[in-house]
Design a protein that fits this description.
Helix content is 46%, strand content 9%. By secondary structure, the protein is of the alpha/beta class. It has one domain (8-105). The chain has a 4-stranded parallel beta sheet with strand order 1-2-3-4, with no helix packed on it. The two termini are 34 Å apart.
Length: 130
């Protein structure tokens, strides 16, 4: 059976992250909640990304996951093609994470059969063209 890993999802401001890390260090506990971190880099502040890179380089973060932010597509904040293209550019420029989660266009229970087919086809087409 594979071992379990706690992954901390970060979407907080860099200042808050620094304060939280400092408080953990001040408490002198053997708790390392930031060993594995997941973040949606396209929807995070650049300063947060810089801080995560520093924490990755100094060993505080052992496993860094870049999430695609596909949820933003579901919320209508960004279109699938725009997300895919921006993410591809970001991932190519930032090869220091350990895991890169690719976006998908997941169907929902409210979608018609045609919409479901279109979403699945769009996801497949984007990845087969790369």
């Amino acid at each position: 059976m594979p071992s379990l890993r706690f992954v901390c999802t970060l979407s907080i401001a860099p200042r808050d992250l620094r304060l939280l890390l400092q408080k953990l260090m001040d408490q002198d506990v053997d708790l390392k909640p930031f060993e594995s971190v997941l973040i949606s880099p396209l929807f995070s502040r650049p300063e947060t990304i810089r801080l995560l890179r520093k924490l990755k380089e100094d060993g505080t973060i052992k496993n860094l996951y870049f999430d695609s932010g596909g949820y933003q597509v579901q919320k209508g904040i960004i279109g699938y093609h725009a997300l895919y293209n921006q993410l591809l550019c970001f991932y190519r420029k930032n090869n220091w994470a350990d895991y890169y989660i690719l976006p998908d266009y997941p169907p929902t229970s409210l979608d018609s059969p045609e919409e479901i087919q279109q979403k699945v086809r769009l996801t497949v087409e984007c990845y087969s063209s790369q």
